[in-house]
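Task: sequence design from structure.
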């Protein structure tokens, strides 16, 4: 996510953004502006105080200043189910092709990239079906926990390091798979990096969690 000064169009350094005050400052021209006015946030009709109807998210208030928001695993209804079936057929075909090609010696080595693509799709589908994500928001940090079969993740971000919370582009599926498509998902921008979360949530839930977190951090 790149943010540019609305006055001189110079790119703003992440260190010059403060999401808690919703203010940014351009070091080039000295202009002070509201961050929410210069990049995509959430639609005006999204209410942070009311979760969407039939939301899959689970909100628990741990204390007066801390919350836990969970996204249960998607199961067979998740986006990864169709990818799982396709990846199994893909791997079966590659295995058959490799077996036939092995009779011609080193020609079978050409199947290696296709193995990586198939395995990548398989891991993606299993993760999307079994992954459980949790956000723990406290008075001093946001903790993003992704519990899954392959490559789990647990990141704690101090609030003072957070530059923005917004929707950001995310590639659905394996990057090497040509039919992968891009969509926008919630993301926390901190320092010079970012972490995306709730990638498999419904669109309404994604927009709501962005609005909810923005409201919490503005207090």
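Answer:
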């Amino acid at each position: 996510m790149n943010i540019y000064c609305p006055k001189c169009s110079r790119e703003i350094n992440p260190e010059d953004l403060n999401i808690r005050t919703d203010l940014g400052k351009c070091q080039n021209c000295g202009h002070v502006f509201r961050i929410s006015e210069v990049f995509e946030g959430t639609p005006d009709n999204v209410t942070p105080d009311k979760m969407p109807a039939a939301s899959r998210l689970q909100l628990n208030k741990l204390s007066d200043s801390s919350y836990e928001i969970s996204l249960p695993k998607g199961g067979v209804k998740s986006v990864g189910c169709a990818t799982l079936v396709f990846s199994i057929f893909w791997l079966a075909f590659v295995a058959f092709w490799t077996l036939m090609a092995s009779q011609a010696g080193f020609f079978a080595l050409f199947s290696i990239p296709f193995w990586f693509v198939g395995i990548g799709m398989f891991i993606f589908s299993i993760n999307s079906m079994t992954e459980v994500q949790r956000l723990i928001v406290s008075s001093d940090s946001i903790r993003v926990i992704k519990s899954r079969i392959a490559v789990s993740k647990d990141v704690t971000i101090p609030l003072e390091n957070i530059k923005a919370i917004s929707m950001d582009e995310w590639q659905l599926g394996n990057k090497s798979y040509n039919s992968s498509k891009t969509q926008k998902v919630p993301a926390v921008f901190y320092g010079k990096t970012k972490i995306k979360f709730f990638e498999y949530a419904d669109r309404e839930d994604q927009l709501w969690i962005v609005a909810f977190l923005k409201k919490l951090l503005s207090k």
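Residues 1-39 form a domain with the Ubiquitin Ligase Nedd4; Chain: W; fold (CATH 2.20.70).
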